[in-house]
Amino acid sequence: MSYGFLDIAITPSVRAAQEQMGVDHLWVDFRGERASDRFTRSEELFIAARDSFYIASVSETGWPYVQHRGGPAGFLNVIDERTLAFADYSGNRQYISTGNFAANGRACLFLMDYPRRTRLKIYAHAEMLALDAVPELTEKVSPQGYRARPERLFRLRLDAFDWNCPQHITPRFTEAEITEAIRPLRDRLAQLEAENADLRSRLETEGKAG
Q: Is the domain 34-172 a CATH 2.30.110.10 member?
């Protein structure tokens, strides 16, 4: 079985570039350690932890367009081993991705975990659905308490995925991640401040008594 992600990604021009750089032998008849056309528990957990991703589409004129999507962690849902879905919220109202996917359903997603320097690449075909088209799906992909206004659903049929190496990924941390990381320091600081205040109070009391 061939490695599906590379079957899609390696075109004749890509193969020519690999040959020019002397690395084509690395990818001829490449076989991955596991299938890349269905999600496992590892991908499911990784996707569920993401609060953003990048999605690329292609216009009728051949120009690519990359858009950022964000929301509460887990807003991109793994429906089954070959299906993703998310609610598409109102944005700047240019509808470039929406228009592109109406003409060409091919999509590429990049999911980044900056603290752990990990990225997941996904090739998929995007299908746009009205909010009332599949009520149970709408309910599943609508995060509780998130106040953004959904306009449609995206259902993504997986073609293949691939994990990238961590090279050149700069670790970055969200405010929530930093808050959690320094919580022990804050707790220790609060404890020391309380002990210091207590010590000062005792010294003042002893000073007055003397």
A: yes
Express as a percent the part of the chain with pLDDT over 70.
98
Indicate whether 198 pLDDT > 70.
yes
Per-domain boundaries in the chain: 1-33, 34-172, 173-210
Checking if the pLDDT of 210 tops 70, the result is: no
pTM of the model: 0.84
Sheet holding 52-58, edge to edge: 64-70, 52-58, 106-113, 118-129, 150-164, 83-89, 77-80
pLDDT digits over 133-174, tens only? 999 999 999 988 888 899 999 999 999 999 988 888 898 888
**DSSP for the chain?**
---HHHHHH--HHHHHHHHHTT-HHHHTT---SS-SSS--HHHHHHHHT-SEEEEEEE-TTS-EEEEEEE-STT-SEEEETTEEEEEEE--SS--HHHHHHHH--EEEEEEEETTTTEEEEEEEEEEEE-TTTSHHHHHHTS-TT--S-EEEEEEEEEEEEEEEP-TT------HHHHHHHTHHHHHHHHHHHHHHHHHHHHHHHHHHH-
